[in-house]
Amino acid sequence: MERTHIAFFGRRNAGKSSLVNRFTSQELSIVSDVAGTTTDPVRKTMELLPLGPVVIIDTPGIDDEGQLGSQRIERSLRVIDETDIAILVVDAGAGLGDDENSLIDAFTKRKIPYLVVFNKSDLDVAIPDVENSMSVSALKGEGIEELKEKVAVIIKNRKTRPLVSDLVEEGDLVVLVVPIDKSAPKDRLILPQQMVIRDLLGKGAIPVVVKDTELAIALEKVGKVRMVITDSQAFGKVSKIVPAEIPLTSFSILMARFKGILDQSIEGANMLDKLENGAKILISEGCTHHRQCEDIGTVKLPNWIREYTGKDFEFSFTSGLEFPKDLSSFDLIIHCGACMLGETEVASRYRKAIEQGVPMTNYGIAIGKMKGILARVIDF
Questions:
Q1: In CATH, what number does 165-253 get?
Q2: Domain residues of the chain, as ranges?
Q3: Interval 255-277: pLDDT, tens
């Protein structure tokens, strides 16, 4: 399930970490009277009632000082790109200043819903009337439940795109192709596969999971199939097995649709036909994992691209939260399905590519393009 990223921002000693601990009912962050105790963003994945699955992020103070302080501020600001809901914590005694107003401007520019939370409301100070604001006392635990309720309303009102459930009807049979090779995780399915299965079950559809080596047998035995969804790596093999009248797509392409970057990714894939020898290509993955000898990002994709174009290129690779600020040196960016990244983070990466004039596509769409079946695999 997609987890909502809730990030806490503010100046040093505004009470961010104390509020995070109250909000989560856990000692998630170290609390101290010493300014700047939080030196790196602290992330915690959890089930938080009544909010559901979330990622809580506590950030360093945005008013830190010195060379290290500047680096901490940069890391805090970088968190904005992955934030779905921002909590701006303000020391009620100090009030709003330039730091807070610059953050509000950043949230507004990126259309990130936010709350201004005046902490230390137990102090005998006047709380200013500010839009989207409320007061709490992390020390006494006052206002915490109200804060959770306000965040819950924001989560409920967030518009989410369907993953696959809108493409099928109750009772439809959907075949999911999951290759089990050296790069497959041991004894588990990867997140997009889990998400698709859960979405299908919620719709009342019937998912049938097979390896690519058993796909032909499965199609003979299961009867009428509404759709086949495969790992993009197996497009070449699977597209030859699945009859043309059965819709075919991939987990990666469904994730692009789910994240709202499908159209841009399709446009980006067309750049593969325009690249010149020596062009620079960035291949980026949203997660970190041990690289295998047949790794898709660093081995298979570069080989497929060379084979498709007949040219040689300069490849760069990033993973996890690592993503360059300056993309201008690249001629094309190919991103994974981004199942481990929130919609806001993915949108931020694609927005940066647009702003810097760099085409960007997605693993599944790029592979579909190179296998000559792109039109088919985006025709749901």
A1: 3.40.50.11420
A2: 4-157, 165-253, 262-377
A3: 999 999 999 999 999 999 999 99
* Entry pTM: 0.82
Average of per-residue pLDDT values in the chain = 90
Examine the pLDDT at 21 and tell me if it is beyond 60. Answer: yes
SS3 letters for the chain?
CCCEEEEEEECCCCCHHHHHHHHHCCCCCCCCCCCCCCCCCEEEEEEECCCEEEEEEECCCCCCCHHHHHHHHHHHHHHHHHCCEEEEEEECCCCCCHHHHHHHHHHHHCCCCEEEEEECCCCCCCCCCCCCEEECECCCCECHHHHHHHHHHHHHHCCCCCCCHHHCCCCCEEEEECCCCCCCCCCCCCHHHHHHHHHHHHHCCEEEEECHHHHHHHHHHHCCCCEEEECHHHHHHHHHHCCCCCCEEEHHHHHHHHHCCHHHHHHHHHHHHCCCCCCEEEEEECCCCCCCCCCHHHHHHHHHHHHHHCCCCEEEEEECCCCCCCCCCCCEEEECCCCCCCHHHHHHHHHHHHHCCCCEEEHHHHHHHHCCCHHHHCCC
pLDDT tens digits along 106-132: 999 989 999 999 998 777 777 788 889
* Percentage of the residues of the chain whose pLDDT score is greater than 90: 68
Report the topology of domain 4-157. Answer: Rossmann fold (3.40.50)
